[in-house]
Amino acid sequence: MSNQGVSPQMMSFLEQEKKKAAVNEIIGQLTNICWDKCMSTPGRKLSWGEEQCLSNCAQRFFESSQILLQKIGQKSGSGGM
Amino acid sequence: MDFAGGQSVQMPSESDMMHQVKAELATAYAQEFYNTVRDKCFKACVTSPSSSLSSSERTCLERCVDRYVEATQVVSQSAIKALQGHS
């Protein structure tokens, strides 16, 4: 019996955990950013306005990311960078 | 297994390793969450530090943790929606 390194199951497990960690990271960062934009003094519960703001913030963030990515892609293509 | 002149090493099972990875990741997430909440909530609730924490500051800090958890859920759900809507 020889040591052949990690099994396919282990590989798959590590891939999964990597993906989960990446999701956790982006959600954590986004909550951080959107909290600053949307929240002032914490109340007994999230107000409707605060909830809307947080929700909008998250969605606008991804839209913005797309636009920025496209723009940067254009600049690279034309040799501008 | 016996190697000439060598010592036999007990390798942890993959199952053990997976458990350890999960445990370490959970600890890292919790640490990160705590650090963020601590900074946000201190900033939001203790605006003019005085010689002791007032009861309203204490209440604010406690509420803040709950609100931050809820904020994370709202952001999470919206992020999933945004990413699913994108083909």
From TrEMBL, chain A:
GO BP terms, alphabetized: protein transport
UniProt KW keywords: Chaperone, Disulfide bond, Membrane, Mitochondrion, Mitochondrion inner membrane, Protein transport, Translocation, Transport
Localization per Swiss-Prot or TrEMBL: Mitochondrion inner membrane
Main localisation: mitochondrion
Residue intervals passing through the bilayer: none
Pfam family, one: zf-Tim10_DDP
One cellular-component annotation, GO: mitochondrial inner membrane
InterPro entries listed in its UniProt record: Tim10-like, Tim10-like_dom_sf
Membrane topology field: Peripheral membrane protein
Tim10-like domain residues: 13-72
Record family assignment: Belongs to the small Tim family.
Function: Mitochondrial intermembrane chaperone that participates in the import and insertion of some multi-pass transmembrane proteins into the mitochondrial inner membrane. Also required for the transfer of beta-barrel precursors from the TOM complex to the sorting and assembly machinery (SAM complex) of the outer membrane. Acts as a chaperone-like protein that protects the hydrophobic precursors from aggregation and guide them through the mitochondrial intermembrane space.
UniProt note: domains: The twin CX3C motif contains 4 conserved Cys residues that form 2 disulfide bonds in the mitochondrial intermembrane space.
Subunit structure: Heterohexamer.
Name this protein carries in UniProt: Mitochondrial import inner membrane translocase subunit
TrEMBL record, chain B:
One Gene Ontology MF term: metal ion binding
Main function: Mitochondrial intermembrane chaperone that participates in the import and insertion of some multi-pass transmembrane proteins into the mitochondrial inner membrane. Also required for the transfer of beta-barrel precursors from the TOM complex to the sorting and assembly machinery (SAM complex) of the outer membrane. Acts as a chaperone-like protein that protects the hydrophobic precursors from aggregation and guide them through the mitochondrial intermembrane space.
Keywords, alphabetical: Chaperone, Disulfide bond, Membrane, Metal-binding, Mitochondrion, Mitochondrion inner membrane, Protein transport, Translocation, Transport, Zinc
Boundaries of every Tim10-like domain copy: 20-78
Annotated membrane topology: Peripheral membrane protein
Subunit structure and binding partners: Heterohexamer; composed of 3 copies of TIM8 and 3 copies of TIM13, named soluble 70 kDa complex. Associates with the TIM22 complex, whose core is composed of TIM22.
Domain comment in the entry: The twin CX3C motif contains 4 conserved Cys residues that form 2 disulfide bonds in the mitochondrial intermembrane space.
Record-given protein name: Mitochondrial import inner membrane translocase subunit
Gene3D superfamilies assigned: Mitochondrial import inner membrane translocase subunit tim13 like domains
Sequence similarity: Belongs to the small Tim family.
Highest rank taxon of the organism: Eukaryota
Chief location of this protein within or outside the cell: mitochondrion
Keyword Signal annotated: no
